[in-house]
Amino acid sequence: MGNIVVLFAGFSLDSARNNFCLEKQFGGKSSAELALKWASSNGTKTFVLSVPENSEKLSSVVAGISPSSSSEIEIIEEDSWTASKIALKIAECCKKSECDSALYSWIDTPFLNNSITKKLLDMHAEYIAEYTFADGFPYGVAPEVINAGTASIIANLAGEDASATRTALFDVMKREINSFEIETLVSDFDYRPLRISLESSSKGGFVSCSALFSSLNLNGNDIAEFDADELCSVASKNPLVIRNIPHFFDIQITSKVNHKTLYSPENANIGIENLPDMSVCEFEKLAKKISEFSPGAVVSLSAFGEATRHPDFLEFVGILSKKGLRIFVETDGLCVDSEFVSSVAGKISGSEIDWIVDIDAADSSVYAKVRNAPESDFQKAVDAVSALSAAFKNHVYPQLTRMNENEENLEKFFRFWRNAESPSNGKIIIKKYDSLCSALPDRKPADLSPLRRVPCWHLSRDFVILSDGSVPKCRSCGKSQILGNAFAESLSDIWDSASPVYAEHVSGNYRGKCGGCDEFYTFSF
Predict the structure, then answer these.
(1) Which residues of the chain carry a pLDDT beneath 70?
(2) How many CB atoms lie within 10 A of CB 206?
(3) How far apart are CA 190 and CA 207, in angstroms?
(4) Residues 471, 486: contact at Cβ < 8 Å?
(5) Segment 465-487, tens digit of pLDDT
(6) How far apart are CA 495 and CA 312, in angstroms?
(7) Are the C-beta atoms of residues 430 and 383 closer than 8 Å to each other?
(8) Long-range Cβ contacts of 56-62 (<8 Å, 24+ apart)
């Protein structure tokens, strides 16, 4: 009975909200146009799930497609979408078109590939599967295949609160994974560690898509017909595809600390201590630059200092909230009390900020040893988790930096905090010890680094800014390698200045401090 194609467009396509789905960046075509063109080659009819605000824009896109194709495109609108609504519409559209199954993807994916699609459909039919997907490929080159009946089941299982995420259908099935007949097309090479996302509804994804398109030798051919293996290989070797824009800004607003711990960067002599506090005026201008360069980024206020000791900490939090940036704070908790928590909660909603409280031990004696602090501070740190969790539930994480000095405390720490009844509601982080490229003594109880070296995640995603505006190449370098000044220069220019170093990583060349660094595989956001 064939299959239909369902493309999801239930999100704002407004370029003012940093959505680039309709930008004609790909040989005069937009992501939406390319996705619809792919759809016309792979289904009897295409259904676009949208919202009312997109009506005019999508109608214009459809009208610009050849008449023979546009007549087979139907736009379905809902005020909002959930996983349940998506699954239900897929089932209804299959029934309406008298088709057994649907290909499903998002409309912002310009690199959907015909050969991968055919393999998925053939596998789905051969093994009489209910759901078939591709694994190990970069996101955006392969759709999902789902049976009409299975879509109905998912709609019932999802509930009304399941969000319309990119993995919504599979996320629902995971709850009852053994109840479904699922087939998987596995890539010959696992591209997942590179986290390549070929979509254009975010600035980072759009930069990646643009860089990939520019590096392909299409010679006027249809992009959906491009050799899938070559496309994925080109993407994995292009530094601009992987390193698009920074996603995590690690900012030092103060160099003040309450105690110098055994792993404290202040002991590493990398030039990040005794710097002046960042002013509100400087920070406000910086936040504006960040929101324009990397909208939706995560901003940490805790690089090389105890952020809560800055007298204008609350002002900084409010500034980031107004700019639509996510906030991250790592603290020792010693300045945190009920009054402090109430003040922060009055500035922002609980979902806008994440907290890490460095505790590093399961008892006061080990705490005092690791953190060079009085034993009495241990209970203050534990109480800080409780106070923060009361206002920011499920966004507070007690953390232990694992090292030889607290290794025997690890299991006790884990068992206490991992319990759902703990003050953090079971949230917990065990962090790897960082010697800052051997600037600190080696205290690692175990080497967790992968056997195969990969390009540094921090170099590809992080942007570190010291309180005087200086931008180090990375956190481990400190003042020894400064790329520029974020107060005086373009963030884009500073970011681009590190591209040659990242290109060396992609080619397998790790020199200088990079050669001896073991932080390359750790990941912030």
Answers:
(1) 1, 15-16, 66-71
(2) 24
(3) 22
(4) yes
(5) 999 999 999 999 888 899 999 99
(6) 28
(7) no
(8) 57/13, 57/22, 58/9, 58/13, 58/32, 61/22, 61/30, 61/32, 61/33, 61/36, 62/36
Which residue, 6, 437, 439, 488, is CA-closest to 286? 488
Q: At what angle do helices 83-97 and 148-158 cross, to 10 degrees?
A: 160
Cβ-count burial of 170 within 10 angstroms (0-12 exposed, 13-18 middle, 19+ buried)?
middle
As given in the structure block, the two tokens for residue 42 are 């792979």
CB count within 10 Å of CB 267 equals 16
Query: Among all chains, which residue has been given the structure tokens 């990040």?
Result: 272
DSSP 8-class letter at 447 = -
pTM for the predicted model, two decimal places: 0.89
DSSP state at residue 175: G
Query: pLDDT tens digit string along 237-260?
Result: 999 999 999 999 999 999 999 999
pLDDT of amino acid 162 = 86
Q: 411: Cβ–Cβ under 8 A, 6 or more apart, which residues?
A: none
Using an 8 Å Cβ cutoff, are 388 and 380 in contact? no
